[in-house]
Amino acid sequence: MKMKRLKTYLFALLPLAFITFSCDEEDILVQEQLDNNPLPGAETGDGGVLDLSNYISLGNSITAGFMDNALYTNGQNHSFPNLLATQFAIQGVGGGSFNQPDINSANGFSGVSGTNILGRYELSLAQQRPVPTVGEAIGDFSGNKSELNNFGVPGMKITDATNPGFANPYYLRFASNPGTSTVLGDALSTTPTFFSYWLGNNDILGYAVAGGVDESSITSQPNFQSALEQSLGALVQSGAEGVVMTLPPFVLLPYFRAVKWNAITLDQATADQLNAGLGSVNQVLEGMVEANLITQADYDEREISYSAGANPILAHDTELEDLGPKFDLLLLLNRISAAQREQLRPYEQSRPLRNGELPLLTAGSLLGTEADGDNSANTPTTTIGAVIPLGYNLLNPSNSDGDGLFLNIEEFETVVEMTATYNATIAGVVAGINAQANGSITLVDVQPAFADAFGLSPALANALFDPSNGANPALAAFADAAEARADGTLGIMIEGHNLQPDFAPNGIFSTDGIHPNPRGHAIIANLIIEALNNQKGADIPMVNVTALRGILARDF
C-alpha cells in the first residue's frame, strides 16, 4: 500500500519536475537572447546644467498651438512647447508638469460666415483647397489659471506682453486679472526656472498678411527693442534661463507662395477671346498716350494681353494713378461713349501682376469666380483675375479690397528688411543680456531650417537673411548659417522622409499656410533641443517628427 502511494506521489511530481525543468531551460534561453539582443529600456536623458522643473512658454499663435486658422484642442496638444515639455519630462531630464489653457474645442473658432461660426480648416482633396469646419465661439478657460505654463496668445505683438490693456480674447480667457494683469506678469508669477520666448512675428506679419496696406501696423525698431529688453530682462532677473527664437523668413510661407503671380492658365482660344473683349481698354490707353494724358511706361504697366499658358493675374492696385478723372475727360470730349466710360470703370487702377509679386492665399478662392456672382452663360463673363481685376468689387466699387490681396515688390522688400532688422535686434539684446547674466539665454536660429526646407540657393539665402549685405555682423552670421543649409532642393529630410514646405499631405504647414502642423511643431521643438544639447551639456531626446500627423484632410 505504501509502495502504491509512493508511486502515485512520484508520478504526480514528474509533470511538475518536467515543467520546472522546462521553465528553467526557457529562462536560460530568454536570458541569452536578452544578453545578445537587449530590449530597449525606458527612454532616459539628461538636462545638463539646466533646471527644467518649471518650464513656461511666452509667445504668440505658434506658441499657443494655433493651426489650421483656429485654436483647437488637438492643435494645442501638438504645440512645440507641449512637445518640448514632454521631452523635458523624460526620466533624467528634470522637467515637470506643463499646463495649457485648454480651449476645450474640437474645431475652435476661425471666423463667422453669416450666422455660421466657422472652425478649423481641413484640406478638401476633392476641391484641392482648405475648407472650414463647423466651429464654436471662444469660451472661458475653466482650469486653474495659477498653474498655467503656456502663455502663448494668438495675435500678440512683442509690445502687448507688458500691456495691461491688452484686450485680446485669447488672453482674457486665462488672464489672472483682466484689464490689470499682463501676459508677462502672469508668466513670471509662476516662478519659472526655464522659458521659451518667441515674440516679434506679428509685428511685421500682420502687415504682410493684410497685403501691405498699413505700414502703421509695423512695430518700429526702437519700440521692438525696448519691449524685448523689458521682457527678457524680467525673465532673466527672475532667475530663469531660457531660449529665444529668431524670426523666420515670412515671405517664404505658403500663404504667400501657394497662389502664383501668373496663376491665370488659358488655352489659345480663351486667350484670343479675352484679348478681343479687352482690346478696347488697351485702345483707350493708347489714345491717352498720344494725347499725353499718360506716359508710355504707364501704358506698358497697365496693358492687358493674354496668350496660351500661364498669364499674370489682373489686379486692382490703388497705388496706381486713378485714371477715372481722365476717363471722364475723354467722355466730356466725346472721345468715348457713356457706355464705354462705364465699361472702363474696373480698369481705372488695374494692371497685371509682375514676377516677384506675391498673391495672398486668400486670393486663391476668388480667382476664376464671377465678379457679378452670375455663372450663367447668358451674361457677360466677369472672371476675377482675368476680366475683372482681383481686388475690385464690381457690385460695390467703393468697397474694393484695393491691393490688399497681394504684396508688391516694395512691400515684399519691406517685410524682408523689417524681419532682418528685428532679428538683428534680437541677436543684440540677447548678447547684451548674456554678457551680464552669464549666458542665461540660448539663441535658437530657425532660419537655416527654413532655407533648407524651401530649397533656397546659397545666394538667395544670403540676400534674404542679410539685406545689409554684410554691413551688420549679426545678419552676416545668420546668412552664413542659412547658406550652409541652403541646398537648392525643395523639402527637408527628417527621419528618412522628405517633408515639404506646404500644406500638402506630406507638408509641415497647416492649412492656413502660416502656422506649422504637428510635424512642423516637432521640427521647431527639435531645433530647441538640439541647441540645448549642444550649448548646455544636455542630452534631451528628440521628438519623433514622423510619428505625428501632418494636415487634416477629407475627401469631399
UniProtKB/TrEMBL annotation:
Example GO molecular function: hydrolase activity, acting on ester bonds
Cleavable signal peptide: 1-22
This protein's record includes keyword Signal: yes
Keywords (A to Z) from UniProt: Signal
UniProt protein name: G-D-S-L family lipolytic protein
Species whose genome carries this gene: Roseivirga spongicola
